[in-house]
Every structure is written in structure tokens, then in C-alpha cells.
Amino acid sequence: MMMKKILFFTLSLVMSTNSFAQDSTDTLQVDSMAAVPQAEFSAAKQQGNVTKAEGDSAYMRNDYASAIQIYENLLKQGEAAEVYYNLGNSYYKADDIAKAILNYERALLLQPGNADIRANLEIAQSKTIDKVVPVPEIFFVSWAKSLINSLSVDAWAKCGVVFFILLLISSYLFFFSKQIIWKKTGFIAGIVFLIFVVLSNVFASQQKSELTNRNSAIVLSPSVTVRSTPSESGTSLFILHEGHKVEIKDNSMREWKEIRLEDGKVGWVPSATIEVI
């Protein structure tokens, strides 16, 4: 009887948690892009006065300036990972590495598990000047981040729904089966699926937070001097070059932003020299 009370309580908790995850992902609609080749893209999609097919066609003709303009216009209608990816490719071909990295990063935010986006981002990052050694992370922190980033927010939410359905089935077996073996199976499976439901919702919430609270940026200026204070008279600390990714530590000022590097260094840069991912 005690086991039934415990499972009933946890089931009620999960129902409210799962409802939160579904609400947090309903506002985000992203085009599917299971695999995106380097030079071949998905079928055309009409948005406003231009189509993605026109941008793809311009890219194939090596008319990267036109492709960039078309993709930029498409993104004004709404975010899509495949358009960001194609825009990144166009900027890369046009030798604008900083903006290529910026758009690959934006595509990766929408589809963090896409290997093609990540591969092209790494290629573009290899062209940058600054090579900063990040502060080492504890292995399980890195493992957890890799697991969370293996799927998008929508994918984790769908996993949560699937595991929740399996939890209901397991609960049915536990409460209504007359055979002890099925009751035990239902109870053990219910605990396992409960853990999976909670983790899926936590991971979806984390991905949602990264999408809505974007605190990373890319340096777009050829070079920028990082200063100790938000002023041109501040002490020069070090120089960053275009394409470098930074974390925005203080976003309270309009003209200046305090940033942090992967190795822990901090300083201030003019807002116009960086663009938020």
C-alpha cells in the first residue's frame, strides 16, 4: 500500500513537470534539418517576397553576396537552423569568417545535435587568430553538457512525452495487474521512466534557457582592445580578433559590455565590436 502511495505522489509531480516542459517549447518552431550537406540544401520555402530556393540558387552560382542578402531577408521573418547554416556557408565562402561563425553558432543553438553545423563551425573557428585555452571542466560536467546538447529543446520535450506515456503504462501494470511479477515489473519500470521524464524536462528547460537568455557573442571587429573599465581611458588588458566567442558578463550598459573568455579573463569592450549570438 505504501508503494502505491509513493508512486501516486511521484506520478502527480511528473504530470505538472511535464506540462511545464510542453509549455516552454510551444513558442519555438524550427524547420527540420536532420542532415545538411555542405553544398546541397532542402527544398524551397516561401517567406515574404523571396524564397530559400533563390538563396540556394545564388549560392550554387557562387553569387555569395546575393545569397547572403536573401538569407538575411528570410531570417527577418523568423529563425530557422537551416537558413542560419546556409548563411554561415555563404559568409564563409565570402571570406567573412566572423559572421560565418556567428551564424553557425545561431544554427547550433536551434539544432545543437547537428554534426554538420558543428563540423563547419570548427572549420571556421580554425581560421581565427586567437587561440585561448579554456579552463578545464570536471569530466562529468563536460559529459552532462554533451548529453544536453545532443538534442534540441523540442526533441527533449518529445522524449519527455514518450517517457511519460511509458510511465503511465508502467503505473497501470503496477496498480491493476493481479500477478506479482507484473506489479514488480511495473513498479521498477515506473521508477526508471520517472527518472527519464524528469531528466528530459530538465534538459529541455536548460535548452530553452540558452535560447531565450543568450549571453554569448562573437567579436566582429578585426581587432578590439579589452579594457579594465568601460572607458577608452581604461587600462589595456589584451586584444581580441574577429571571430572569437565571448561570454557577456555584464549587459547593463548600452555602449560597453563586460566579457569573459574561456580561460577566465574578463574585461570591457565597446558594444559595437561584438554581436550577440
From TrEMBL:
Pfam families: SH3_3 (PF08239), TPR_1 (PF00515)
Signal sequence region: 1-21
Keyword RNA-binding set for record: no
Listed transmembrane segments: 155-175, 187-204
UniProt-listed PROSITE patterns: TPR (PS50005), TPR_REGION (PS50293)
SMART domains assigned to the protein according to its UniProt record, in alphabetical order: TPR
InterPro entries on file: SH3-like_bac-type, TPR-like_helical_dom_sf, TPR_rpt
Protein name: Tetratricopeptide repeat protein
Lineage: Bacteria, Pseudomonadati, Bacteroidota, Bacteroidia, Bacteroidales
